[in-house]
Every structure is written in structure tokens, then in C-alpha cells.
Write a sequence for this structure.
């Protein structure tokens, strides 16, 4: 039986709304999942994240593996108790981060950003069938992560949802390498499932990860391979192409290959722009995670209903210096409802004051939380097409 | 008529409890005043500061003068509106910071710390009867601050309580220089009062500052000089000696010279250790400000009822790594009531996570807020001696 109970389906798209049940409670879907990268949503208390309307957060296996280490988190009875978040937790596999060190910063490649250099986060020493040997970016020590390591760490972290360890290929890698890498990812999937069956904590769900790069046949084959396994859910990872149009096409291939009958939850990894969330929901994605809203906030960028500017406003810009306006009129977040002007926020952000970073983080997460509430309600009410058109036209969430 | 209404006097000491009325509301005294140095209590929203029980914050004239500048704050109708804090605001004169640049880091000297070098915060170019010319630590531009500048800036900031511009002498300066400097401070006081009479915003209170260094006769003479002027309150500044015993002696000289009949509010500048607050209250101080609780929090040090360790615990210490204990049992602050263990907080602090800094800031401010509530209640109830003895013995506030 699927952990996801689909309660509503949109007649005009693949969108669905429902409830994802985990060992630590339910997640209303479709849902955005904020990053608690290093066991904290940066700058926020867990109760604030819950108050914003979030049901689940995502912890990063790679970072927590290195610091404070899975054993220390296990000493505290897992991530929930360690960070004081009693609600559902999903952890990634560490694959994305570990391969980011090897492929000339795959993280940047995947997202279409300029590479920032392979040494940014340590260094990969070797990649083979077993897994990846690398130098820790924390202390330079030699470490290893393979499918079993990843699942063992995620077991110690006590994640409600674990993602299997995959090889994450960057955009510039060709078809040949992508095909071989995707096959390896499938072999690693089997090893992850075998380890989990033996050692997984009770109730932990395991998601497979669809790879296959930008190649339609590889994506479809990967989706079918993953779906054929006894996974509890399906995540879509790896390179999603050079632009948004290609990303939607690639996600569509994978979800189409799964078919409507597959009621298992689907997670789209690392995607969180407003337009991508809307389109992803229409394509049938149930959950999304992304560093974007929190990272943008730390850099002074707020999410606003302005499609022409990618739903963003850079509050550090000089034009806001004397502005009495809030980030967004009518927004109930602490920054806007607290009466803070763009001028004051700009001053705080320019002076790297924690309060500014925090207020923007709260605003951005509040925005995406409301966006998802609206999308869920529209699916349930059968009004998704009109609602999505409104959002794309600049309506407030 | 004094802005301070004294409601209770402790029979066994000089302590008094009452209400200090300002243009933006009342301050229950004795009170600790958290620093909103650069128009924000670092990491907190104004409503959180109010919720902790604080009635007033202190803004730093020197920092705000340089960035964002008094005119920008005035554009936003003053500090209250700019930072979204509708309650009382006291601003310092800028004297302490400006002279900190000139005397080989007087800030460190006054506090008995090792000097960190005269260039830490820009550089003094000249000091004369007019005021101080210095280089901005922000952009290296040449700036000037004198008595009139300070009062003009504080007028634009819209402070409820302005402090007059004083020369702040360090500990190592001799009697001769201290005497001349104190006389200059008195001449500057007259210029400040003259400027304020002409240009001060309606309802703004002005406090004089007692100087005189570590010399009894100079302190007493200074206190009498200040008290003879039409000031609304009296602050005690400058070097308070090499240790706590000498500090209490010096504060006692000044307050004794004022006498019990002087009902004007008394502010002790830059003092906020738990034992100093207790003793200061007994000596008859009404308000205190200090960077300590917030600064300690940012460095991972929490305030706890542990007199043997200066009421401090360093949560970054390795011994807390596996600790399930809260910072302080029974503490109602967000860090302790939120169930966060010392082990988790240590991890956050070691990894410089904003959430850790914020939780410790909240804890430390919550501790001092409760300390002052307890002291006020004890004065009102006539039990200060027993209450203070309990606190000194390690009772929770």
C-alpha cells in the first residue's frame, strides 16, 4: 500500500493532492520541503518552521555524516530529537553532494550556474563500483560513502524517508557515461534496498531515484527500472537540462513513464522556484525540496508575486534605500506584518545583521508555504488551471 | 519633576523601584536595557524583545551616525519607526566609541581586557575642545563628532533619552589628564544642553554623564557638577577601575554624592554581569545597558545560575558534546523550553549556525529580564536582602 493517499486529482493535468503518511506524522501534498541542511533550517527554530505550515524538512546526509557524525545524532535518538523537530524528516542520500566534489561542482552544473571549482567542498579521491572515496571538507580526513554507508547513516539519522545512494551526473556528461552511470545507480539501488531490508529502522520509507540525464530513453528506462523495485516512493534527480523548458520535459518523461496508476509519492529533488513548483505540481510531483528560498533570503533576495522578475526582488539594491514599502503588501509573514520597510531590511542586509537574514528567510518560506496551500486547495476544488494561470500572471499566493 | 516615579525604596540599601516615563511609554525600574546597537537587537525581532519583558532598548549613536546615517533614520521618522520598536529608546552619545578609537581601544581598557589595537574601529585624527575628528571604520572618510553633532544625531534618531557627549578616559590615564578631561566633559555638557534646548525633539530626556575616572574626589565633584545642571537623569561612565570591588566603590561615590533626595533616574553605562546588576541595584542604579548578554550569546556562552563560574557556561566546550541537558532546567526561554539540548546547541554553535546564536541570545536576554523582574519584586516586597543573597548563592532568577 502506498504511503501516499491521493485524495484529489486535477482533471486537466497530472496534479494530485493527498496525504503522505510517515512514522512521524502526515505531510499534506503537494508540499514544499524546506532544507534543514545541517539539522537546522538556518536561523529558525523548529516550532517556527511548523508554524509557517510546513509538515516535513529535509536533512543532508552528506553534511551530517561529516559533522556532527551519524553516531552523535544517533546518541540523541536521531534527527527528530536532536534538532527538536517531532514531525516528518526526509534525508537525501549524500550522492548529490559527494559527486558535486568530483565533477567540477556538479551542483552548479546541474543548476546551470557557473562552476565554482572542484575543491570547493573537499575532493573526490576515487569513484568505483563500491562507492566514493573523498577528502572531508571539514578536516581533510579520508572518508568513504557507498550505498550501504548512505543507508546506514540515514538509519542512524532516523529519517522517515531515506533516499537511495545514486550517482549524480552533471549536464556536460555525454550519453554514453550517463547510460553507464544510470545502470550503476540501479545496481546501487538494489544494494540500498538489501541493506535497508536488513538494517533499516522500522517504518522508514525508501525512495529510489530516477536518473538518465537529459536523454528521453534513459529517463524512461530508469523510471521503469526504479518503479519495478519495491521502493516506497520515487525521486527524480540528476541533471534536468539547460533551461526550464527542458527540465519540465525531462520531469514529464519520468512521471509519464511511471503512469497514473502508480500511486507512490514522487519527489523532485532540488527544485523550488515559484514557476517550477506550479509546473511540477501540474506534472504530478508530490513533494519538492530546494535550498533556494532560504539561500536567497540569506543573500537579501525576497520572493514576491512578480513573474517578470522571476518572482524575486533584491532588497540590497540601492533603490530600496528610502522605501517605506513592506516586501509584499498584505503578506502575513513576520517581516511584512511586523511593519518592516524595504529600506530598513536593506539596511540590515547590507550590514549583514542576523535579523535581516532571518526576516527574509521567514518571508520566503511563508510565501512558498502559502503557495502550496493554494495549490492544494485548487486541486481539491477542481480549480487548478485557473489558479495556476492567476499565479503565473502575478497573483499573490 | 523627575521622569522617574520612585514607588518603593529598599530599607536595607539604596535600591529603589519605580517607573521611568518617556515619550514612548514607561520603563519599569530597575531595568536592564538590551543593546540594539545598529537599530536591531542582533538576531531578534522587536516584538520578541518586547515579549521577553524589555521596555527599552539602547541604540548606538556612533554606529548609526556612520551607517545608515542620521538623515536616513530621520527619513523613517526616527529609530522607533525605522526598526519597528514602538517602545522607549535610549541612545548613547557616541563618546565611548569615538574615544575608543583614540586611546588604544579604551573599550578594552575600561573593561579591563587586553587592548586589541587602536585601528580596530577606524582612527582618531584629532581631539580638541570642539570635538573629535576621526576616520570612519566603514569607508575611511573623515568625520567629526562634537557635543552639538552628538545631540543633533540623537535628535534625528528621535531617542526618548539622549546622553550628552563626554570624553571617555581609559584606565591607564593619570589623575591630571582625568581631571582636565572631566572638566571638558562638563563644558561639553553645557554645550549639549544649550543645543538640546534649541533643537531637541519634544519630550526627549537628556542625561548628563558622571566622569572622574578612579579618583574619589573627581567622581564626587563630577557627580555634583552634573546634578547641578538641568539634566533629566544621570549616567555613570568612563573607567570604573580594575576590578569589581573598585567598580562598586566608584559607582557608590557617584551615587552617594547625588544623595537620596535626587529622584532623577540613574543609568550605569556598559555594565551587565549578573552580580554587577544585583550590586548596582543595591547601590541605587535604575537602568543598566551592556553588550554582554547578546555578545556572549553570539560566542556560545550562556548565562546560568552558577556564581562560581561568573554565572556563565561555555556551550562550545567539548564536555557538552553528548549532553541531553537544557542550558538551564526550568528556564522558560525558547532554547530551554523548546527542548534543545546542550549537545545540539554546541553543535550549532561550533558550526556557526544562526539558530544557535539566536537561541543563546534569547536565553541570555530572558535570564536578565527575569533577574530584573525578581529584583523589582523584591524591592517592592521589602525582601531585597534575602533575594539578593539567594541570587548570589546560585538561586535561579
Amino acid at each position: 500500500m502506498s504511503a501516499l493517499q491521493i485524495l484529489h486529482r486535477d482533471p486537466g493535468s497530472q496534479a494530485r493532492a493527498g496525504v503522505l503518511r510517515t512514522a512521524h506524522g502526515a505531510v499534506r501534498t503537494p508540499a514544499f520541503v524546506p532544507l534543514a541542511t545541517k539539522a537546522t533550517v538556518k536561523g529558525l527554530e523548529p516550532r517556527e518552521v511548523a508554524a509557517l505550515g510546513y509538515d516535513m524538512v529535509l536533512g543532508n546526509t552528506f553534511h551530517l555524516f561529516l559533522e556532527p557524525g551519524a553516531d552523535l545524532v544517533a546518541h540523541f535518538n536521531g534527527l527528530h530529537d536532536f534538532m527538536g523537530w517531532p514531525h516528518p524528516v526526509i534525508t537525501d542520500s549524500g550522492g548529490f553532494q559527494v559527486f558535486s566534489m568530483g565533477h567540477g561542482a556538479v551542483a552548479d552544473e546541474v543548476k546551470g550556474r557557473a562552476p565554482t571549482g572542484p575543491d570547493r567542498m573537499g575532493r573526490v579521491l576515487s569513484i568505483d563500483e563500491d562507492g566514493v572515496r573523498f577528502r572531508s571538507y571539514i578536516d581533510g580526513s579520508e572518508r568513504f560513502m557507498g550505498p550501504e554507508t548512505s543507508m546506514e547513516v540515514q538509519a542512524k539519522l532516523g529519517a522517515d524517508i531515506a533516499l537511495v545512494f545514486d550517482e549524480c551526473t552533471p549536464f556536460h556528461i555525454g550519453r554514453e557515461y550517463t547510460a553507464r552511470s544510470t545502470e550503476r545507480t540501479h545496481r546501487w539501488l538494489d544494494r540500498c534496498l538489501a541493506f535497508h531490508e536488513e538494517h533499516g529502522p522500522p517504518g522508514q520509507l525508501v525512495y529510489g531515484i530516477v536518473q538518465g540525464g537529459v536523454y528521453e530513453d534513459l529517463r524512461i528506462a530508469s523510471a521503469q527500472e526504479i518503479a519495478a523495485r519495491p521502493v516506497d516512493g520515487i525521486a527524480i534527480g540528476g541533471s534536468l537540462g539547460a533551461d526550464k523548458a527542458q527540465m519540465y520535459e525531462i520531469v514529464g518523461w519520468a512521471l509519464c513513464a511511471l503512469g497514473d496508476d502508480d500511486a507512490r509519492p514522487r519527489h523532485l529533488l532540488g527544485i523550488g522556484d515559484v514557476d517550477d513548483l506550479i509546473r511540477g505540481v501540474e506534472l504530478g510531483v508530490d513533494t519538492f525540496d530546494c535550498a533556494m528560498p532560504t539561500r536567497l533570503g540569506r543573500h537579501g533576495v525576497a520572493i514576491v508575486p512578480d513573474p517578470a522578475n522571476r518572482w524575486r526582488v533584491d532588497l540590497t539594491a540601492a533603490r530600496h534605500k528610502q522605501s517605506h514599502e513592506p516586501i509584499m503588501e498584505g503578506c502575513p509573514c513576520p517581516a511584512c506584518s511586523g511593519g518592516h520597510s524595504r529600506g530598513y531590511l536593506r539596511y540590515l542586509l547590507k550590514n549583514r545583521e542576523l535579523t535581516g537574514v532571518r526576516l527574509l528567510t521567514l518571508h520566503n518560506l511563508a510565501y512558498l508555504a502559502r503557495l502550496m496551500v493554494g495549490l492544494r486547495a485548487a486541486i481539491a476544488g477542481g480549480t487548478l488551471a485557473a489558479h495556476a494561470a492567476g499565479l503565473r500572471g502575478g497573483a499573490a499566493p
